[in-house]
UniProtKB/TrEMBL annotation:
<keyword id="KW-0676">Redox-active center</keyword>
<dbReference type="GO" id="GO:0005829">
    <property type="term" value="C:cytosol"/>
</dbReference>
<dbReference type="Pfam" id="PF06110">
    <property type="entry name" value="TXD17-like_Trx"/>
</dbReference>
<dbReference type="InterPro" id="IPR010357">
    <property type="entry name" value="TXNDC17_dom"/>
</dbReference>
<protein>
    <recommendedName>
        <fullName>Thioredoxin domain-containing protein 17</fullName>
    </recommendedName>
</protein>
<dbReference type="InterPro" id="IPR045108">
    <property type="entry name" value="TXNDC17-like"/>
</dbReference>
<dbReference type="GO" id="GO:0047134">
    <property type="term" value="F:protein-disulfide reductase [NAD(P)H] activity"/>
</dbReference>
<keyword id="KW-1015">Disulfide bond</keyword>
<dbReference type="InterPro" id="IPR036249">
    <property type="entry name" value="Thioredoxin-like_sf"/>
</dbReference>
<keyword id="KW-0963">Cytoplasm</keyword>
<feature type="domain" description="Thioredoxin">
    <location>
        <begin position="8"/>
        <end position="124"/>
    </location>
</feature>
<comment type="similarity">
    <text>Belongs to the thioredoxin family.</text>
</comment>
Length: 126
């Protein structure tokens, strides 16, 4: 049902996104900070959201691609020229952010911890 893809950094994300078939199933990207040696992100909001998002996605009964995108370490993310911030397709302002690819829906920051908002991303699907 849910196909998980791990993408590390902007270049890997861009290659993957550019190669997506336009007729493909729904693609959701989850943008988060790099994981530290202890397995959690340096971003406290990402640490809070990740278990909620992962649990939701593991229970989802839809045919979607879920891309977990590592945006980099804190200095990389905080740079205003970070490509995740400047890419016109993304224009990320905060992490975590969940984006429905080629759609208008997105959840940012604490919105990513709300199961009802996660469910709304999948309404009106085939």
């Amino acid at each position: 049902m849910v196909t998980k893809v791990d993408l590390n950094g902007y270049d890997e994300f861009k290659r993957y996104a550019d190669a997506l078939d336009p007729k493909r199933k729904k693609v959701i990207f989850y943008f988060s900070g790099t994981k530290l040696d202890n397995g959690t992100s340096w971003c406290p909001d990402c640490v809070e959201a990740e278990p909620i998002v992962k649990t939701f996605m593991s229970q989802l009964k839809k045919d979607v691609i879920f891309g977990y995108v590592d945006v980099g370490d804190r200095p990389t993310w905080k740079d205003m020229n970070c490509p995740f911030r400047t890419d016109p397709r993304l224009k990320l302002m905060v992490i975590p952010t969940i984006v429905v690819w080629k759609g208008v829906q997105r959840l940012e920051g604490s919105q990513c911890t709300k199961v009802d908002l996660l469910q709304m991303l999948f309404e009106d699907d085939d």
